[in-house]
Design brief:
The chain is mainly alpha-helical. It contains 25 helices and two strands.
Length: 664
């Protein structure tokens, strides 16, 4: 009569009470068989009767020859394991364990049986038996390793990039740019504030509910079953190697999906700015996705698959994850040591903020000694990016100080350096938190520079109490103003110098007033610049219209209004007309950018010139109006002049040809 051998698992099973009860039943049955001392056939019949009473006695036939029980069980388990070894390589995985769970369960039970025997001290003393057991385990581990790899590969879930990007909330900031490195040549900057604006995206934040598992959940239990036995057998190294190799490839594929390329430092250095900017934006998003989503998903998988060993799960996670982290860090390092140019500042700051933001997550993920190397590398790259940001900002400051273009801006309009610097510093303020932390220990140089500027300009910069970035911006704008003052001297016409200064200082004030810069620089700074603009307006009126007004004075015309010299009056009106027409021709071509300032200047001119002209006409006009060719000298009425003043500062030169009085 054939006996049935059932292999029981050694890693789990029922409760302790059930196992103890079964042991007691089996022991009692064995004692009864021995006491009867009957023939084999009778004994077998009795055992069948006993076994029918309780299924716990289903293995009782093994008690017929108790001295051979261990050997029979081992041989049965060995047969299960070696049966797979005899199958050809091509057909071993024609039926995956997921589709034949009974095959997998039988195989794992066989492994458990042999493991239990190798841990038995009595068996360990039998050299021949141990050799066979170790050989069987070696074969079993090869299959489990192979099956572990196939389960990982078959159950990998591709990354859904669309879902990820749909969960990213972006913040956009407007910043005008032009071709090339603008600070290398401010004159190449296009003047229009709006048409040439592009948006500087500060990356985005991930939703709190984003969670991605890159493996089928049902496969995790199977992975754990295999991992537990490989670790128990001393094959933890092979298990970790298979796991980390497969999962590294998965993470590499994820990096590719979200647009992160494998680039050497040399490759990054060769990329032109616009392409590099796109890669930096993708890097910023990738850092958030990799750390906040992918690595935490990998951490969960390691914790579940290797829950039986804290050390193994940490090793597996570190070996799996450090490759993609280092790939991200290599790009960050390459950017940080690249050529410094002002347009890179905000993207570098975005990279710095993104990495600083995920640093606590990385420290939590790589919390053991094995992961400290990764965290150390992250801190190193973070420091390098911080240094790059500080260096790039300093490069921008130096470019502003050293910008010495000698070509005056046509029409006295706003200089490109003014537009660029003010749009730049407006965006700098949005990074005040980061820059303040980076610049907090670098105020010594500011003190030296502020002393120099105050001595040169006699201006109290009021740096006391300012934040580090506030101090730097205050000094920078003071340098800009000094630079503009020097550029105003390129105009030969003194009046145009003041128009140029009014245009540029007002542009600066408006940018400050309408942004967070006002909080940084303070209301006192704004009021002081508005006072400067009023002074420039007064100086403009004096420089431009004093000669015109001199023509309308009584001195030098030969007496009172009753006996004034007609020749002198003719000369006065002739000179007035010539001066006015000259100013009209020149200053209609000048450009006052701000409509309100343009109107205020016209009103100021009108308030000085029109009353003086009207008064002069009232006193002396009748001396010429009754004579011949009166229109040759008295060309304009006060109303004519007021109308012509409305043409000033529009940026389009006009000429008064053969003008005669428009009103009789």
């Amino acid at each position: 009569m054939a006996t049935t051998t059932t292999i029981s698992g050694g890693g789990g099973g029922g409760g302790g009470g059930g196992a103890g009860g079964e042991d007691r039943v089996m022991a009692t049955a064995q004692q009864i068989v021995k006491s009867l001392n009957t023939t084999k056939e009778v004994t077998e019949d009795m055992l069948l009767i006993f076994s029918s009473f309780d299924n716990r006695l289903s293995n009782i036939s093994n008690l017929i020859e108790p001295e051979a029980t261990g050997v029979d069980q081992f041989e049965a388990a060995e047969k299960v394991i070696l049966r797979w070894e005899s199958v050809s390589e091509a057909s071993r995985h024609t039926l995956p364990w997921e589709e034949a769970p009974e095959e997998g369960a039988e195989y794992l039970a066989a492994v458990d049986e042999i493991l239990q025997m190798t841990e038995d001290l009595a068996i360990r003393s039998d050299g021949e038996m141990m050799d066979r057991a170790e050989s069987a385990l070696q074969v079993a581990m090869a299959r489990l390793e192979d099956e572990f790899r196939h389960i990982l590969i078959r159950n990998t879930v591709p990354l859904d990039a669309d879902r990820l990007y749909g969960s990213i909330r972006r913040v956009s900031l407007s910043f005008p740019t032009s071709e090339g490195e603008i600070l290398g040549d401010f004159d190449s900057f296009v003047d229009d504030d709006h048409e040439n604006s592009c948006y500087h995206e500060r990356g985005g934040s991930l939703g709190d509910d984003v969670c991605v598992d890159l493996i089928q959940p049902d496969a995790v239990a199977e992975l754990k079953e295999i991992a537990d036995r490989m670790i128990r057998s001393g094959y933890e190294k092979e298990c970790c190697q298979v796991y980390s190799t497969v999962r590294r490839d998965v993470l590499d594929e994820c990096l590719s999906i979200i647009g992160v390329e494998k680039l050497s430092i040399e490759d990054v250095q060769k990329i032109e700015w616009r392409s590099l900017d796109e890669k930096m934006k993708k890097w910023i998003q990738a850092v958030k996705i990799v750390v906040r989503i992918l690595l935490w998903g990998e951490k969960r998988l390691c914790d579940q698959a290797f829950s039986g060993s804290d050390l193994i799960k940490e090793v597996c996670f570190t070996e799996t994850a450090k490759g993609c982290v280092m790939q991200l860090l290599n790009f960050g390092e390459a950017v940080s040591i690249g050529k410094r140019s002002s347009e890179k500042l905000f993207r570098i700051l975005d990279m710095y903020d993104a990495l600083a933001d995920v640093l606590p997550d990385l420290e939590a993920l790589f919390s053991d000694e094995l992961g400290e190397f990764v965290c150390s590398e992250v801190r190193g790259v973070l420091a390098s990016l911080g240094d790059a940001a500080k260096g790039t900002f300093a490069e921008f400051e130096n470019a502003v100080r050293s910008e010495t273009s000698r070509r005056p801006i046509q029409n006295g309009d706003i200089h490109p350096i003014t537009r660029y610097v003010m749009n730049y510093v407006k965006l700098v303020v949005d990074y005040s938190g980061t820059l303040n932390s980076l610049l907090e220990n670098e105020d010594d140089d500011d003190d030296d520079e502020s002393d120099h500027l105050q001595n040169r300009d006699g201006d109290d910069l009021q740096l006391e109490g300012k934040s580090p970035i506030g101090r730097r911006l205050l000094l920078l704008l003071t340098c800009l103003e000094s630079n503009l003052t020097e550029k105003s001297k390129l105009y030969e016409d003194n009046a145009m110098q003041y128009i140029f200064l009014m245009n540029n200082i007002l542009y600066i004030v408006q940018k400050v007033k309408d942004s967070e810069l006002r909080k940084v620089l303070g209301d006192h700074w704004v009021r002081k610049r508005r006072g400067q603009i009023r002074q420039y307006a007064t100086s403009y009126l004096r420089a431009s219209w004093s000669k015109v007004l001199a023509c309308l004075k009584d001195e030098g015309i030969g007496g009172s209004s009753s006996n004034a010299s007609k020749m002198a009056l003719k000369e006065r009106f002739k000179n007035f007309n010539a001066c006015f027409e000259d100013i009209y021709r020149i200053q209609t071509a000048w450009k006052v950018h701000d409509a309100q300032l343009r109107e205020e200047l016209r009103i100021s001119i009108s308030e000085k010139v029109i009353p003086a002209y009207r008064s002069f006409m009232g006193r002396f006009g009748n001396h010429l109006e009754s004579g011949r060719n009166a229109g040759k000298y008295i060309k304009y009425t006060p109303e004519d002049l007021e109308n012509y003043l409305l043409d000033l500062f529009e940026g389009s030169s006009l000429v008064l040809h053969h003008m005669r009085r428009k009103t009789a």
